[in-house]
Amino acid sequence: MDFVKMHGLGNDFICLDHFLFPTGMDYAETAVQLCHRQFGVGGDGLIVILSSDVADARMRIFNSDGSEPEMCGNGIRCFAKYVYEAGYVQRDSLKIETLAGVLNVKLEICRGAVHHVTVNMGEPCLDPIKIPVLAGTDTALNQKLEVAGQEVIFSAVSMGNPHCIIFTEDLELLPFETLGPAIEKHPLFPRKTNVEFVKVDNSGEITVKVWERGVGPTLACGTGACASVVAAVLAGRTGRTVIVHLPGGDLKIEWQEGQQVHMTGPAVCVFRGSTLES
Ligand SMILES: N[C@@H](CCC[C@H](N)C(=O)O)C(=O)O
């Protein structure tokens, strides 16, 4: 099986190109095997590149535990770079079908290669039923949660996939390895959740540590960066254009008044390979 290894700020993916020749492969099982850091290729997720009836291409993404999330911000930038450089799309703007809907993507191309990608990530969703999060209020902003012997204040936001955002003054003091998995699997989140711990540096910069649903700690999360900025703007903590510092690097997130959220960041192809056994 041939694959391409790509990453967006160190959030790394094994990409399978099934655009021309779809297969009946069990992608969930393949993700678990290939993403394993010791027994496989190693990756946070598996991306499958497919043709689409409603867009230029269709992205399926699987977490390293085999679960299939609705969207992946770093993944869609890698996906867009791949489909352009493979020649499947010959424009600098394209539409990509995901489980979270069809998203518009703009490529920054230099000498035939894509380095940066801007994605219109759509409207953030604050409706607790759609996120989903069990909250008896109209939105799940600034809610109390008792977890792992601690009380935290969180805001839940969906960017197609669920996010739980917790603001903190000190990212180092926070028991990340305890709180992350406990919140990810907390019964308040019926489909589990991604967890972002956010420190506001100033009105135009935040620093974010991510615990991803179905993966664990990752070096970056595109949808998580967007959800964190949405929560920060709504709490009056930042302006609407924010540089998000993640362990793997920076993303630029813009959420102008009355508009959709835009994310800009890099996409990198690391190597091509093929597995010896399937
Ligand atoms: N790393 C991604 C998000 C991948 C999906 C996530 N783990 C989930 O289950 O929702 C991103 O960059 O957005």
UniProtKB/TrEMBL annotation:
It catalyses: (2S,6S)-2,6-diaminopimelate = meso-2,6-diaminopimelate. Its EC number is 5.1.1.7. It is found in: Cytoplasm. The active site is at residues 72, 221. It comes from the Bacteria. Keywords: Amino-acid biosynthesis, Cytoplasm, Isomerase, Lysine biosynthesis. Substrate binds at residues 11, 63, 73-74, 161, 194, 212-213, 222-223. The record marks 163, 212 as: Could be important to modulate the pK values of the two catalytic cysteine residues. InterPro entries: DAP_epimerase_AS, DAP_epimerase_DapF. The keyword Metal-binding does not apply. Pathway: Amino-acid biosynthesis; L-lysine biosynthesis via DAP pathway; DL-2,6-diaminopimelate from LL-2,6-diaminopimelate: step 1/1. The keyword Amino-acid biosynthesis applies. Catalyzes the stereoinversion of LL-2,6-diaminopimelate (L,L-DAP) to meso-diaminopimelate (meso-DAP), a precursor of L-lysine and an essential component of the bacterial peptidoglycan. Belongs to the diaminopimelate epimerase family. Homodimer. HAMAP family: DAP_epimerase. NCBIfam families: DapF (TIGR00652). This is Diaminopimelate epimerase. It comes from Dehalobacter restrictus. The lineage of its organism: Bacteria, Bacillati, Bacillota, Clostridia, Eubacteriales.
